[in-house]
Design brief:
Layout: H1 9-22, E1 32-33, E2 45-50, H2 54-59, H3 61-73, E3 80-85, H4 95-106, E4 114-115, H5 136-139, E5 151-154, E6 165-171, E7 174-181, H6 187-199, E8 204-209, H7 222-225, H8 237-240, H9 248-254, E9 262-267, E10 275-281, E11 287-293, E12 306-311, E13 317-324, E14 329-331, E15 337-341
Parallel strand pairs: 2-3, 3-4, 7-8, 8-9, 9-11
Antiparallel strand pairs: 1-14, 2-12, 5-6, 6-7, 10-11, 12-13, 13-14, 13-15
Length: 351
């Protein structure tokens, strides 16, 4: 999601109201530091996260380029093994912005595998989310992914589309599966995702979907909280018109909590401070860390900040921090750098 001040009068007025509620006008930049708050530990591996890039695709392509260029340049030094995009790849779902995204993301081709998930701004005419129509598959055709080593497959109900996909990679003695699901995943997509995870019970699961954690450190929960959590997927036409779509709590109940291997859920979308996290126990007693990260409402459309997930060589520690290649700085707040405990590498063997 991104606050916008153009297009139709109704859209403009709604955006201004949202901005006033958020205090977006005159917002002070977050405190940053040149010093890495959690220095990289030799022997670690990194999963890089690209939060909502919609502002870059529309107004600052050089920033999008800088993010992926930095990933390529630091692949070896940081041992970057995978890149997760959290959706809202574009702002208006128009060809010019998809061209920007294609150029930036294709820099990773053959260097670091990556996944893409669709945000609300990637859907419908003008990114208005009235339908699930998207230009994603014209600029990132499935045929270009079929032979990639980490690519697993797509939603079997739409076998020619990249809207929902899974990816397989290994690092640090772990075998991973990444599920990249559309905005407000439909019930059939959730059923497919369950089947995929059932097929790979021994892999550590990472789920990305655009809207899952809210900035109050809880999951989106339309049934319990309704519009008190702004921008819930159920408030969008694509879900209201069809009655088919799931928010964070529904995904937790129907999918995430049911699989012992699930380790992480990462999402974007939410404004306010753009941050949130919680940890919950799945049905098998496994800890699942769930986090929101989004910078696009910050000065400079987010300033090029991306999130780095660093898996330490002890096999039990995950460092999380936010870094900008543009300014070569790290976010200084404790909400932007923290340490999580994860199951040891031999978790499954020990059972």
């Amino acid at each position: 999601m991104r606050t916008q001040y153009r297009s139709s009068p109704a859209r403009w007025i709604g955006a201004v109201v949202a901005a006033l509620c958020l205090g977006a006008f005159g917002e002070e930049p977050d405190a940053v530091t040149k010093e890495d708050p959690l220095p990289f530990v030799a022997g670690s591996f990194t999963v890089a996260v690209l939060p909502d890039t919609q502002g870059y695709a529309e107004d600052s392509p050089e920033t999008f380029d800088a993010q992926t260029a930095w990933i390529v340049e630091n692949k070896d030094a940081r041992n970057i093994v995978f890149v997760l995009h959290l959706g809202d790849i574009t702002d208006d779902n128009v060809p010019a912005q998809w061209e920007v995204a294609k150029r930036a993301m294709q820099r990773l081709d053959g260097v670091v595998p990556y996944s893409l998930c669709l945000g609300n701004h990637d859907l419908g005419a003008g990114g208005g989310t009235a339908t699930r129509d998207t230009f994603l598959n014209e600029y990132f055709p499935l045929s270009s992914y079929a032979e990639r080593p980490a690519f697993g497959g797509v939603f079997d109900g739409e076998p020619d589309r990249l809207d929902n996909s899974y990816h397989l990679f290994s690092a640090g003695g772990r075998d991973f599966i990444v599920l990249a699901l559309e905005f407000a995943p439909r019930n059939a997509v959730v059923d497919w995702a369950n089947r995929v995870l059932d097929r790979y019970p021994d892999r550590c699961g990472i789920l990305t979907t655009h809207a899952y954690v809210y900035s109050d450190d809880t999951r989106y929960d339309w049934a319990a909280k309704g519009r008190t959590q702004m921008w819930n997927p159920h408030a969008y036409k694509v879900v209201k018109n069809s009655g088919d779509g799931n928010d964070g709590e529904e995904l937790w109940q129907k999918l995430v909590s049911k699989h012992a291997g699930t380790m992480l859920v990462v999402s974007g979308h939410v404004l306010n401070d753009g941050l949130g996290r919680l940890s919950s126990l799945g049905e098998a007693g496994n800890a699942v860390h769930q986090m929101l990260v989004n910078f696009q409402m910050k000065p400079g459309l987010g300033g090029g900040f991306l999130r780095l997930l660093e898996f330490l060589p002890d096999g039990e520690t995950l460092q999380v921090k936010d870094y900008s290649p543009l300014s070569d700085t790290y976010k200084a707040s404790g909400d932007n750098h923290f340490v999580l405990r994860i199951p040891p590498v031999n978790r499954i063997d020990a059972k």
